[in-house]
Amino acid sequence: MTNMIQALRTLNYEGTVVFWRNGRLETMKYFHAVDRGKEQERLVALNSPLREVVRNGDVVSCRYNDTQDVVFDHRPYERSFLVNFSRTLAELDDFYEFSLAGKEDVAMLPAYVIDIEPKDQFRYGRRIWVEKLQFLPLKIAVYDVSGALLEQVVFTEQHVRAALPFREARAEVGRANMLAGQAIKDGNAGVLPFTVTDSPAGFRPIYFARKTMHDSHLPVDYLLMSDGITSISVYKENKNPEMDLGLRSVGAINYYSLSLEDYQITAMGEAPPETVKSIVEGVRLNPPIVRKLQPE
User: Fold this and answer.
1) Alpha carbon 191 to chain centroid distance?
2) What is the pLDDT of residues 252-288, one digit of tens each?
3) Sheet holding 263-269: strands in order across?
4) Mean pLDDT of the chain
5) Residues 260, 283 contacting (CB under 8 angstroms)
6) pTM, rounded to two decimals
7) In degrees rounded to 5, what are phi and psi of residue 16?
8) d(Cα 50, Cα 284) in Å, to the nearest integer?
9) Is the peptide bond before 49 cis (omega within 30 degrees of 0)?
10) Which pLDDT belongs to residue 242?
11) What is the 3-state secondary structure (H, E, C) of the chain?
12) Where does residue 231 rank: exposed (0-12), middle (13-18), buried (19+ CB within 10 A)?
């Protein structure tokens, strides 16, 4: 797995990848380019809606072919479109068990089959097929707590290249949905508009931002929490009677919302319902920061 994490970040590779999510299949061309420590990931849709999604470091852009509209978003830490590991394997040992499940061929390439089993009910399991020579993932599957398949990502062909070109994305012509943001190091969030107490073991805050949603101009407080593999987004926004409360599910993603004073709190992520519910119910609002005016 260590070799795979290294290969994901350092190799130039491309291929055709099929995403199966929410009962839908989508085939895209995938490109990963590296140059002097900088990474770029690119996904090009082969079927409607035609679009190109580009990740440059922690900035992600999506350009739609029909309107040429470009939407920019910010990822608080570099997250692959394929699979994420934001902590070392040693740090993940308390929450996941890694084991070699066998050997299989994927896209006519020999691969190790690695199982990632959660040690509690607050995260999903994964199986990753890792190509034997370059250690790149060829297939990733996510399973619920009963072992049922939730989603799958499969390369139908994959090639390692000496180099791949970078695609330029011009932020000045796009529509950004991000405002101020701050990375949170070592789980020390400092003073934020809200705090999550009693979250499931291993989940800690890693990024906070005040941002606008794609369908609204109102600012929303956004906190990202992660255990190193599973990420949960927590939103605090003004209460709206048209917003749904309680639990909702779309494929592997679960949402849970409740009202807290004048706000609606929502947690969403690729995690069991108990996880998002526990995090939302642990939210406590903090008093606003009053800044004293300094005499001139």
Assistant:
1) 24
2) 899 999 999 999 999 999 999 999 999 999 999 988 7
3) 178-183, 204-212, 219-226, 231-238, 263-269, 253-260, 246-250
4) 87
5) yes
6) 0.85
7) -110, 130
8) 42
9) yes
10) 80
11) CHHHHHHHHHCEEEEEEEEEECCEEEEEEEEEEEECCEEEEEEEECCCCCEEEEEECCEEEEEECCCCCEEEEECCCCCCCCCCCCCCHHHHCCCEEEEEEEEEEECCEEEEEEEEEECCCCCCEEEEEEECCCCCEEEEEEECCCCCEEEEEEEEEEEEECCCCCCCCCHHHCEECEEEEEECCCCCCCCCCEEECCCCCCCEEEEEEEEECCCCCCEEEEEEEECCCCEEEEEEEECCCCCCCEEEEECCEEEEEEEECCEEEEEEECCCHHHHHHHHHCEEECCCCCCCCCCC
12) buried
Lookup: tokens for 204: 């800690």
pLDDT at 87 over 90: no
**Whole-angstrom distance, CA of residue 289 vs CA of residue 191:** 8
What confidence tier does 185 reach under pLDDT thresholds 50, 70, 90? low
- Report the alpha-carbon distance of residue 270 to residue 256 in Å, rounded: 12
Q: In the sheet that 175-176 helps form, which strands lie side by side, from edge to edge? A: 96-106, 109-118, 125-131, 137-143, 149-161, 12-21, 24-35, 38-45, 51-56, 59-64, 70-74, 175-176
Instruction: State which amino acid sits at residue 91.
Output: E
Read off the tokens for 184.
Answer: 């949170």
The predicted model gives 96-121 an average pLDDT of 97
